[in-house]
Design goal:
Layout: H1 3-13, E1 17-21, H2 57-60, H3 75-82, E2 88-92, E3 98-103, H4 134-144, E4 158-160, E5 166-171, E6 177-178, E7 181-186, E8 189-192, E9 197-199, E10 204-205, E11 208-209, E12 211-213, E13 220-221, H5 224-232, E14 236-237, H6 261-279, H7 285-301, H8 307-320, H9 328-342
Parallel strand pairs: 5-13
Antiparallel strand pairs: 1-2, 2-9, 3-5, 3-8, 4-5, 4-12, 6-14, 7-8, 10-11
Helix pairs in contact: 1-3, 6-7, 6-8, 7-8, 7-9, 8-9
Bound molecules: zinc ion (ZN) (2 copies).
Length: 355
């Protein structure tokens, strides 16, 4: 197994969603021709804009088109993507429930003090003479908020980047969701969240290694005060369009070996609908898993879907809604709901019917 495949597998193992980056670069590996928009921001021939590809068939076919949107934790896909290739490993922050604070060191001249910490009264800032980098700016914010330094003996997974930057990795949990923003929190401070990518610790690019510093190998919980700061600068979101979970759930191929095409299309649409409902459930997740599991179980009973594949897909969808895939209660809910549904098979609708 090559080193980058091994790294990608380790990331997925810990629940981080990964996608390939060009070796020696931080950019996503190129889309296929159909999926590449003619100009950034435009729609590609596949019909989906670059940064939103929930229904692109390349993704359901297991290709790594659309960059971060292709991210997966599926070991088979990861093996297929990385085997024999030296792709760098990108971690999709939102689906992995991560917020990564990216502190740059660009040697730019110091801006107007009002731009150091947008929204913070520059008169309230202590000494800013020494400020040179994103690290200094974040330290400044800690002092202004009378919070403990996030950088001295950093209490979280910390990475030094080849360009001299620092990445602080935080676990955002199933609480509020955040979106990415460059320079919003502070000068030379980028926040990677939502549909954003952070280079996996240990990745080696042409520029050098993303080197773990300090003893922490696991992200700490995002400090509450920092979460409030992200909300203050507008990086907290409730918008389902910009909020993970992604629509990318490994879809079993219904009907491939059962029944005619109309029936298969019906089962596929029902499956997608139920998985989306589970993945986007915010309250009453268990009830939703139960309901969707029962409905899909009925299609399993009718021979339209495969029990194991549906179980796996439901587990992944529940994980996107924040349910720990290892949680015994969730697993037993899925199992019981599917079994109950299977015992009462759905009558197959007439051709052309829509669920
Ligand atoms: Zn494609
Ligand atoms: Zn596409």
């Amino acid at each position: 197994m090559n080193a980058s495949l091994e790294l990608a597998m380790r990331c997925a193992d810990r629940g981080w969603w990964v996608h390939p980056l060009l070796p020696g670069s931080k950019r996503p590996t190129g889309n296929c021709r159909r999926c590449r928009p003619p100009a950034s921001g435009q729609r590609a021939a596949c019909g989906f804009p670059e940064r939103d590809a929930g229904g692109c068939r390349c993704l359901t076919a297991g290709r790594y088109c659309h960059g971060v949107r292709a991210a997966t934790t599926d070991p088979d896909l990861i093996r297929r993507w990385w085997r024999g290739r030296d792709f760098a490993v990108g971690v999709a922050t939102g689906p992995s429930r991560l917020v990564v604070v990216d502190l740059d060191d660009h040697h730019h001249p110091l801006p107007d003090p009002a731009l150091l910490l947008p929204g913070v009264d520059p008169a309230s800032l202590p000494e800013t003479e020494q400020v040179r980098t994103g690290v200094d700016v974040l330290e400044l914010l800690c002092r202004v908020r009378r919070a403990e330094s996030l950088l001295h003996a950093p209490p979280t997974l910390t990475v030094r980047t080849p360009s001299g930057g620092v990445h602080l990795w935080y676990e955002a949990g199933s609480g509020p969701r955040f979106v990415q923003g460059a320079g919003r929190l502070g000068w030379q401070v980028d926040v990677r969240a939502g549909w954003s990518t952070a280079v996996a610790p240990g990745t080696v690019t042409a520029a050098g290694r993303y080197q773990l510093v300090g003893p922490r190998t696991v992200p700490a919980r995002l400090p509450r005060w920092l979460a409030l700061e992200l909300a203050r600068v507008g990086l907290r979101t409730r918008d389902p369009d910009t909020t993970p979970p992604p629509a990318r759930i490994r879809l079993p191929r219904p009907g491939a070996r059962h029944g005619p095409r109309d029936t298969a299309a019906y089962a596929a649409a029902a499956l997608r609908g139920e998985l989306d409902a589970v993945a986007s459930a915010r309250t009453g997740r268990n009830d939703q898993i139960n309901r969707s599991g029962y409905r899909l179980g009925r299609l399993v009973g009718a021979g339209l879907l495969d029990l194991d594949e549906v179980h796996q897909a439901l587990t992944e969808a529940a994980a996107l809604a924040g349910v720990d895939p290892g949680e015994a209660k969730a697993q037993s809910t899925i199992r019981r709901a599917l079994q109950a549904g299977t015992r009462s098979p759905r009558t197959v609708p007439s051709p052309g019917a829509r669920p």
